[in-house]
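Protocol step 4 of 6: structure prediction from sequence.
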Amino acid sequence: MNEPLLHAFSTGIGALYGWRSLRNVRRILIYKLDHMGDVLLATPALRAIRRRFPEAEIRIVVGEWSQTVLQNNPNVDEIVIYNSREFARYPYAAHKFSDLRQKLGSWKPDLVIGLRDDWRTVTDRLLSGARRINRGRVHFREWLERKRTNQPHSHEVKRLWAILRPLGIEPEPVEKLEYWVTDEERKQAAEFMLAHGIEGPFAIVHAGTSVPLKEWPLDKLAEASRHIASAYGMQVVLIGAPEEVDRSADLVSLIRDLSPVDISGKLNLRGTAALMERASLYLSSDGGAMHVASALGVPTVGLFGPGSYHIFRPVGRHATAISHLFPCSPCTMITCIRPNDTCMQAISAEEVILETDRLLARVHTAPANHSVLQHQSPR
């Protein structure tokens, strides 16, 4: 997808249809087509939209991979599934746009909000008479500002607030993601913990990633795990997707003396989240599960390498992140151009231990309205 061109086109479409009245908004259609972590980062925006239009029926269009993180969210009335070919990746197949049109049927929104579109959704319902708020203008303005000042990219949550400003919505003073766990899921998590010998306090360590270049070296992860266990008396619990089972097993072999509990591949995302809710710490490379942990209020340490630190670092006073910001970061490479000195290798066990200590001290002493500053080490 040529994103700059899409943003320019989106800006033009928004200008054409951004003047329509916001009175009598009864139906709102939101597009947020990208990945799970991005959808979680949109939950403050969804909360604000609901507060701005409390009586409106709100439908959100997301990819199949993201629907689970919006289950039980009271700020959304209906989740509509559309796997955009621009965002679908294995094992999910892309859907035809006509499938989405069929799902929406005769339902016509008064307001369309494009938090993340593709070419088809940004042009959908142009003649419907609906007011349209698009993402493109925010990206275009940020691009111009970066050209002038060379400033880094804005955080995704900040971008979303900027998108919503024409609706009279202002940023929340303290941003907090939301993930809704049910009582039944909590009960099942308690039973799972009992069956697998998981006792509090415990730390969740996620060794695997969806992108190999984001993996932090296992020997350093083992050193950080030892510190967590010895300094805080936390049991180490390893999680991971089915395809990450082997990497978790390799970490187990390095910390066998800690008697870690490896549950990789044994829970789906909903079950993992219910377990996370009881954790005292979460440590991983950046990814969707990291944002789930921060949404649940778990003290979260995220490690960033090739990922976009400035855009996707975790949110909330319970979260922190480490990145060395190499000149080539962020990247989407499969093979690193500097294999003996990668951005993930540059993160030391010592700085992760230090940042973990700072975070745990902070969350136990900071007032509720204190916002955690994100840590980064310039390279």
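Step 5 (inspection) to follow. The chain has two domains: 3-167, 183-365.
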